[in-house]
Amino acid sequence: MNKALKEMLVGVILGDAHIKKTGLNKAFISFEQSIKKLDYLNHLLTITKNEGLSLMNDKLREYTRTDLRNSSISQSGYFRTHSIEQLKPIADLFLDYSGKKVIPLNIAEHLTPRSLAFWIMDDGQHVKNGGLTLCTTPP
């Protein structure tokens, strides 16, 4: 995996992307964003395709769901990689022994301007008085 792809994956996994291990040596990543951010999600899809990661489908899929907590309806787009060995090191970095997403203690070693940019695009929030908030609470 080249450096640029790893940096992108670190940023999006710190954001809204999900990673899951399958078997002993493989993992897959699911990319999902609000329908409002389809241009960004298409950008991620293009990068992922160009880097040669095997995809379940080479087009975005869209769906609608109801959030039962507040009865709101949301629309999202998503795509997913196949379960591949190439993603296992990233899964080892971000998943604990039970498979729960965590922020690694050594995250500073993996943050670069590119990974921060993807994290901001993926899950950053603009603060009205200036600045931004990076969301860090894993699901």
TrEMBL record:
The keyword Cell cycle does not apply. The keyword RNA-binding does not apply. Pfam families: LAGLIDADG_2. Keywords: Mitochondrion. Residues 7-137 form the Homing endonuclease LAGLIDADG domain. InterPro entries: Homing_endonucl, LAGLIDADG_dom. GO terms for molecular function: endonuclease activity. Gene3D superfamilies: Homing endonucleases (3.10.28.10). Mitochondrial DNA endonuclease involved in intron homing. This is Homing endonuclease LAGLIDADG domain-containing protein. It comes from Hypsizygus marmoreus (White beech mushroom).
